[in-house]
TrEMBL record:
Record-linked PANTHER family: CYTIDINE DEAMINASE
Organism: Acetobacter oeni
InterPro entries documented for this protein: CMP_dCMP_dom (IPR002125), Cyt/Deoxycyt_deaminase (IPR050202), Cyt_deam_tetra (IPR006262), Cytidine_deaminase-like (IPR016193)
Record carries keyword Cell inner membrane: no
Gene Ontology biological-process entries: nucleobase-containing small molecule metabolic process; pyrimidine-containing compound metabolic process
Protein function: This enzyme scavenges exogenous and endogenous cytidine and 2'-deoxycytidine for UMP synthesis.
This protein's record includes keyword Zinc: yes
Entry-linked CDD domains: cytidine_deaminase
Residues that coordinate or bind substrate: N43, V44, E45, N46, A47, A48, Y49
Protein known as: Cytidine deaminase
Cofactor: Zn(2+)
UniProt-listed SUPFAM superfamilies: Cytidine deaminase-like
Length: 136
């Protein structure tokens, strides 16, 4: 894993900032860009439930706002059990990550529970290349 400790630490730390009063399920995520920068995000729920955003979405937004376009590794931290990215987040990751992008699911102590590639999580995916777009 690339910069394992930094990426895992960023995900477990940001999880503490999660705003999850409705589900009480805190999630932290951190991704590392091809330029080495790390972007964390946490879930932010809303009284209008569907308006809540996932931790991964927050991290992706932070990356894009900072000019990043290529994700090389991701860590997601939920509870004691592995927290697999939801379907929507898998698709969002697909926009900026290749099929061999590693997604590590860790517990709050930082222990890696499961590692999957994005290709395993989202096989036969639809991405920018399907629209003839190679980079944004
Ligand atoms: O990978 C995941 C899975 C769930 N959640 C959030 C959404 C919601 O706030 C809470 C319960 O589903 O967890 C994430 O942030 N990332
Ligand atoms: Zn999600």
């Amino acid at each position: 894993m690339t910069d394992a400790r930094e990426l895992i630490g960023a995900a477990t730390d940001i999880r503490k900032r999660a705003y999850a009063p409705y589900s009480n399920f805190r999630v932290g995520a951190a991704l590392i860009c091809d330029d080495g920068r790390v972007f964390p995000g946490c879930n932010v729920e809303n009284a209008a439930y569907p308006e809540g955003i996932c931790a991964e979405g927050g991290a992706i937004s932070a990356m894009v706002a900072a000019g990043g376009r290529c994700i090389v590794e991701v860590v997601v931290c939920g509870g004691a059990e592995p927290c697999p990215p939801c379907g929507g987040c898998r698709q969002k990751l697909r926009e900026f990550g290749a099929a061999d992008l590693k997604v590590h699911m860790v517990d709050p102590s930082g222990k890696v529970l499961i590692t999957r590639t994005l290709g395993e999580l989202l096989p036969d995916s639809f991405g920018p290349d399907n629209l003839g777009i190679t980079g944004g």
